[in-house]
Design brief:
2 domains; 15 helices; 23 strands; eleven-stranded mixed β-sheet; disordered N terminus; globular
């Protein structure tokens, strides 16, 4: 942290010189200052509140948190850091019991909507709490879709009346060019709240033994070991994360859990590689991925034929009705799955039953509300995997190998909680002949030093995290084993929209208070030197982020989505993240913060 602090001090000196004579902070800390604003609002200034920032156990996350803490301290803002164990951290964010948090989102499929629809009011991944709690009743958002041919115009509506309506419109739009324009409009709404502060676009750092062949990962970050070879192929030892929150495919919402589910279950489709090593979506439990039939009402019907002889891991026949049950379960309000909203594209979503039918044991008919380009990718997503009704009737079924009935390449034969999960080749899997690795030991750890040590000494053949302070040395020592893969995702800081950043003595309420909070959140975002974070902390080829939708997503004309976001001249996205712009960004942030706080100044 010495280097980052010296950088902050240098910037502080520049800020101080620039601000001499124009600092409007009231020097009497016991007497709030009032500043007149254009219009009718006069802001009563006061002391800045202490901000608590939560992150999960990781040296990399800790280093970024400490940098943010130092950057804010440099202008007089106090941020306390709290490190939480992974599952506790996930639930704290999900429940909205936080002020500011570390966050990250990796694409669920290669369409920008998966970055957009997670922020609807009913989404289980909506950690910011948009449309929830007090925010549900706040009327301040506008939506005008008349220029796009829709008879929808809302002034001063709630989040549900505007953003949710926009996302629903996007999902029903069959004009792909217009659909992408609407997704840009949705990202504009998100970024205007200031609740999402992008830091960098992800890369996927990992180390893998040169002796391991056949390993691949998807752009979603899932790792695949079923086609690997290593020594006699009896076993491979890997570490991708600590104890998973859940490996119920309907309830999982984490990349590590998805990787486990992808080895334990088989959906209608799967991520695969061709003979040249190129990623593709292939049929899994179905004979082929058929084209949909568009009806006069715009609905699209898919009729799939399951492969012959499909079995569950306990030898029972797998039937089309198992998919019908699993999908309705995952989409149900009763289950309350984070990813339940991913069935919105299926006709009947929001009612008691999806429009999915088992015509017979091997024939599954699915009706979508409208055509979507990423349907096959959804079929490969864990939430769409089958589960059996009699198995999941036991609520603890997914925590014990004895009750974990699945249908994928592997079965779970051992789970020493917080230590390891052992997967063994499933003889009942329909493509077992092409599963080369007989056993996968998933060791569970979040201690990057321990993880790295076990790779160096040969105990583990693949690891998905390394100590940040070792990266430069690792690049030199293990040039062939250390990999930086592409990944469609964004690392960001998120604010809980129901937690105010205003002084305790503020005179602002309702809409005016939220507008002020938006300004403050955006100002804090401008204080972050993303280039420093990427180059000196993360050190994994990450790219500074100026938008939420990640690199790798493209528009219909094949231009990158993030390069057409924000509608600004001279830079991509919603703010300039170039090295040259950092000082001007910090000056702008300081000016905004001084509108609300008496104790903010360049130190």
């Amino acid at each position: 942290m010495k280097k980052v602090l010296s950088l902050i001090v240098a910037i502080a000196l520049l800020l101080t010189c620039c601000l001499v004579g124009c600092n409007t902070t009231n020097n009497n800390d016991n007497k709030p200052a009032a500043t007149a604003e254009p219009g009718d609002v006069t802001i009563v200034k006061g002391a800045a509140p202490t901000i608590k920032y939560i992150y999960n156990t990781s040296e990399g996350h800790k280093a970024i948190a400490e940098y943010i803490q130092a950057a804010l301290a440099n202008v007089g803002l106090t941020m306390n850091l709290e490190n939480q164990e992974w599952n506790t951290f996930l639930n704290t964010r999900k429940d909205g019991n936080y002020n500011v948090a570390r966050n990250g989102w990796v694409a669920d499929y290669t369409d920008p909507i998966c970055f957009i629809d997670m922020w609807t009011s009913n989404s289980g991944n909506n950690d910011i709490q948009f449309g929830k709690g007090e925010h549900a009743n706040l009327k301040m958002y506008n939506l005008d879709l008349t220029p796009y041919g829709y008879d929808i115009k809302v002034t001063n509506g709630t989040w549900a009346e505007t953003y949710d309506v926009l996302v629903a419109t996007i999902k029903g739009c069959v004009d792909n060019v217009k659909r992408y324009e609407l997704m840009h409009l949705a990202e504009d709404m998100l970024m205007d709240t200031g609740c999402i502060v992008p830091v960098y676009y992800y890369t996927d750092l990992l180390m893998i033994s040169k002796e391991v062949k056949g390993f691949y990962s998807s752009p979603l970050g899932y790792k695949y070991f079923n086609k690997t070879t290593y020594k006699d192929n009896s076993s491979i030892s890997v570490c991708i994360a600590s104890e998973p929150d859940t490996i119920d495919p309907a309830l999982n919402s984490a990349v590590d859990g998805a990787t486990l589910c992808a080895h334990l279950f088989a959906g209608l489709a799967k991520w695969d590689i061709d003979a040249d090593g190129n990623l593709k979506i292939s049929p899994d439990c179905v004979e082929s991925l058929v084209e949909g039939v568009v009806g006069e009402d715009g609905k699209v019907t898919y009729t799939y034929t399951l492969k012959e002889g499909l079995k569950w891991s306990d030898g029972q026949d797998l039937k089309a009705s198992d998919f019908v049950f699993a999908w309705n379960r995952a989409a149900s309000e009763v289950l309350g799955a984070d990813y339940g909203y991913m069935f919105e594209v299926v006709d009947g979503y929001g009612t008691d039953k999806l429009n999915v039918e088992a015509v017979d044991d091997r024939t599954l008919k699915v009706v979508l509300s409208s055509a979507i380009s990423y349907w096959d990718e959804l079929l490969a997503f864990p939430t769409y995997f089958p589960v059996r009704e009699d198995v999941v009737g036991n609520e603890a079924w997914a925590t014990n190998p004895a009750t974990y009935i699945c249908n994928g390449p592997y079965t779970m034969t051992k789970w020493d909680h917080d230590s390891q999960i052992v997967l063994t080749k499933n003889a009942n899997y329909h493509d077992a002949a092409n599963v080369t690795m007989n056993e996968i030991k998933f060791f569970l750890s979040s201690d990057t030093n321990t993880i790295y040590t076990n790779f160096v000494n040969g105990s583990w053949q693949m690891i998905d995290d390394v100590p940040t302070n070792e990266i430069e040395n690792i690049k030199k020592t293990y040039p062939d084993e250390f990999k930086i893969n592409g990944q469609i995702g964004t690392y960001y800081v998120c604010f809980n929209i129901n937690k105010s950043l205003l002084p305790s003595n503020t005179n602002l309420t309702g809409v005016e208070a939220e507008k002020a909070n938006q300004e403050i959140r955006k100002a804090i975002g401008l204080l972050l030197d993303r280039n420093y974070i990427c180059e000196s902390i993360a050190q994994g080829g990450q790219v500074p982020a100026s938008s939420f939708v990640a690199m790798g997503m493209t528009n219909p004309d094949h231009t990158e989505f993030y390069k057409t976001a924000g509608h600004n001249e001279g830079y991509y996205g919603y703010y300039d993240v170039s090295k040259e712009a950092y000082t001007s960004n910090a000056l702008a942030a300081l000016e905004i913060l001084q509108k609300y706080y008496t104790d903010v100044k360049a130190k």
